[in-house]
C-alpha cells in the first residue's frame, strides 16, 4: 500500500487497521534530546478515542500508546543524563487494539458483501479484491486516525518549544454554529477541555497516574500491563466517576465531551446530534484549526505552498472540503474588502484583517493560520440504504448493525489539529534550514 507517508524533514509513516492487532506510527526527523512520554501522547489520543459519550461510537478502545524505539534505554555514558530521551533515530509508536471481540467481527462478516454507501468499502474492495481488510473497514476506518494524533502530539511538543501553538475545536455541528471568538479565548477553552478529559479519564488514571507505566519498564512489561487492561477494560471504565455535564459547565465553563469554545453552542450541538441519531441518521459539521507563532515567510513556492500543503488535510477520512481564512466567502467579496491591509506600528507590520488566513503566495504572513474543515455525516447509519452485493453484483439493501458514531465532528478535531501540526513542523524545519544557510552567506 502506497500513500501512507507524509513529510520531508519530519516524516510520518502509518500502518495498521481497525481489527488488526493494532496500529503503528514511524516518525523520522525527531530531534535528539527530547523527553517524549507515553502519557503525553496518550493525553492527545484520549480526546479522539471512542466509547466516552453518546456522541461517539460505543467501541471502548483505550488507545494506550507504547514507544517502541527511538529513545535511549539507559544513560549512554557515565555522567550523561539521556535515558528516555530521543536519540535522533526513527521514533516508533505502537497503538494496540484491545476492544475487538468476535461478535463485532461477525457483524462485519455478515454485512461486508453489501458495502456501506458513502464509505470506502466498495472502492477498497475494487482495489484490493477479496483480500481487502473489510473487518471494521480496516485501514479506511476512523481507527487509523489515532496514528495521526500520536504523531501530531510529538510535532506539537516540538512546535511549542519554538513558540508555535496549534489547536482545534468544533465550529459547527448538526447545523448549530458557534459564534466567532478571539483565538486566545478559544485556545484557553480548548486547554480547559483537555484538562477535564484527562482528569475524568479512567484509563489515564489506571495506566499513568497509578504508575503502572513508567520510564524504567521494558516493552514486554508494558505489554503485560496492556494485557491486564484488556481483561479489565470494561470494569475499569464502568467503575469510573461519571462526568456531570452541568457541574463541569459550572466549574470549568465547558461541555465535557463537545470541544466547542462557546459552551451554550456546545450543549445545543449535542442536543441536535442526538436528535438526529434517534432518527437513525447521522450529521456533519465544521472543525476549525488555528496555528499561532508562525514566522513570516515560512513555506515554499509553487508545489510546496503552505496553503497547498494544508489542502492535504483532505487526506483525513470524512473531510470533504478545506478552506483557509475567509475561504469560500471570498467569491462574494470585492478586492477592497478581501485584501488584508497593512500598517507599520511600533516597529512591526500590523494587518487590519485576516481574510487570507495567515497565508499569501503560499508563505506565512506571521498572522494566525486559520483553517476550517467540512466534515461529512457518518456513512454508517441505522436507516435502510440502497446498495449492492459487491461479489454477485445484485441489488441489495443495508441497515447498519455495527458500532458507529452519530457524528464524526466531536472526535475529528484532534486529528485536524495533529495533521496541521505535521504540516507546519515539516515546513518550519525547511524554513529554519533555509534561513540558516542564507544567514551564513
Molecular structure report:
The chain is an alpha+beta fold. It has one domain: Chorismate synthase, AroC fold. The protein is built from twelve helices and 16 strands. The strands form five sheets. Strands 1-2-3-5-4 form a five-stranded antiparallel sheet, with helices on both faces. A five-stranded antiparallel sheet has the order 7-6-8-14-9. A two-stranded antiparallel sheet has the order 10-11. The longest helix is centred in the C-terminal third of the chain and has 32 residues. The chain is globular and about 65 Å long. The mean pLDDT is 90.
Distance between the termini: 43 Å
Count of DSSP strands: 16
CATH level-3 fold name: Chorismate synthase, AroC fold
Note the main sheet.
5 strands, antiparallel
**Share of helix, binned:** 25-40%
| CATH structural class | Alpha Beta
Strand portion: 15-25%
Weakly predicted, low-confidence segments: none
Radius of gyration: 22 Å
Number of domains: 1
CATH superfamily: Chorismate synthase AroC
**Structural class of the helices, strands and pairings?**
alpha+beta
**Helix/strand order, N-terminal first:** EEEHEEHHHEEHHHHHEHEHEEEEEEEH
Provide the spatial order of strands within the biggest beta sheet.
1-2-3-5-4
Amino acid at each position: 500500500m502506497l500513500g501512507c507517508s507524509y513529510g520531508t524533514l519530519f516524516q510520518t509513516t502509518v500502518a495498521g487497521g481497525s481489527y488488526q492487532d493494532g496500529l503503528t506510527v514511524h516518525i523520522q526527523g525527531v530531534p535528539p534530546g527530547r523527553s517524549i512520554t507515553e502519557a503525553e501522547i496518550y493525553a492527545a489520543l484520549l480526546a479522539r478515542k471512542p466509547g466516552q459519550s453518546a456522541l461517539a461510537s460505543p467501541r471502548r478502545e483505550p488507545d494506550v500508546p507504547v514507544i517502541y524505539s527511538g529513545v535511549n534505554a539507559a544513560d549512554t555514558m557515565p555522567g550523561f543524563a539521556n535515558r528516555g530521551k530521543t536519540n535522533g533515530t526513527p521514533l516508533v509508536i505502537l497503538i494496540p487494539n484491545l476492544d475487538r471481540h468476535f461478535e463485532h467481527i461477525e457483524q462485519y462478516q455478515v454485512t461486508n458483501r453489501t458495502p456501506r454507501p458513502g464509505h470506502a468499502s466498495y472502492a477498497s474492495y475494487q482495489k484490493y479484491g477479496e483480500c481487502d481488510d473489510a473487518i471494521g473497514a480496516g485501514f479506511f476506518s476512523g481507527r487509523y486516525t489515532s496514528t495521526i494524533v500520536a504523531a501530531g502530539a510529538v510535532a506539537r511538543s516540538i512546535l511549542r518549544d519554538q513558540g508555535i501553538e496549534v489547536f482545534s475545536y468544533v465550529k459547527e455541528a448538526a447545523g448549530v454554529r458557534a459564534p466567532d471568538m478571539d483565538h486566545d479565548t478559544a485556545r484557553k477553552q480548548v486547554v480547559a477541555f483537555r484538562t477535564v478529559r484527562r482528569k475524568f479519564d479512567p484509563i489515564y488514571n489506571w495506566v499513568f497516574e497509578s504508575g503502572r507505566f513508567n520510564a524504567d519498564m521494558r516493552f514486554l512489561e508494558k505489554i503485560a500491563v496492556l494485557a491486564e487492561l484488556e481483561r479489565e477494560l470494561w470494569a475499569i471504565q464502568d467503575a469510573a466517576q461519571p462526568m456531570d455535564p452541568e457541574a463541569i459547565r459550572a466549574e470549568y465553563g465547558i461541555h465535557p465531551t463537545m470541544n466547542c469554545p462557546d459552551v451554550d453552542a456546545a450543549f445545543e450541538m449535542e442536543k441536535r446530534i442526538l436528535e438526529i441519531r434517534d432518527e437513525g441518521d447521522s450529521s456533519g459539521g465544521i472543525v476549525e484549526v488555528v496555528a499561532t507563532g508562525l514566522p513570516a515567510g515560512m513555506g515554499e513556492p509553487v508545489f510546496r505552498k503552505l496553503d497547498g500543503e494544508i489542502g492535504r488535510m483532505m487526506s483525513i477520512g470524512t473531510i470533504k472540503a478545506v478552506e483557509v481564512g475567509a475561504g469560500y466567502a471570498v467569491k462574494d467579496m470585492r478586492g477592497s474588502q478581501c485584501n488584508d491591509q497593512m500598517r507599520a506600528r511600533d516597529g512591526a507590520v500590523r494587518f487590519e484583517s485576516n481574510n487570507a488566513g495567515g497565508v499569501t503566495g503560499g508563505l506565512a504572513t506571521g498572522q494566525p493560520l486559520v483553517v476550517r474543515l467540512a466534515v461529512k455525516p457518518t456513512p454508517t447509519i441505522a436507516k435502510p440504504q440502497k446498495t449492492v452485493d459487491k461479489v454477485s453484483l445484485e441489488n441489495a439493501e443495508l441497515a447498519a448493525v455495527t458500532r458507529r458514531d452519530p457524528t464524526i465532528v466531536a472526535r475529528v478535531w484532534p486529528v485536524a489539529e495533529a495533521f496541521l501540526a505535521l504540516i507546519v513542523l515539516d515546513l518550519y524545519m525547511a524554513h529554519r534550514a533555509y534561513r540558516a544557510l542564507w544567514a551564513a552567506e
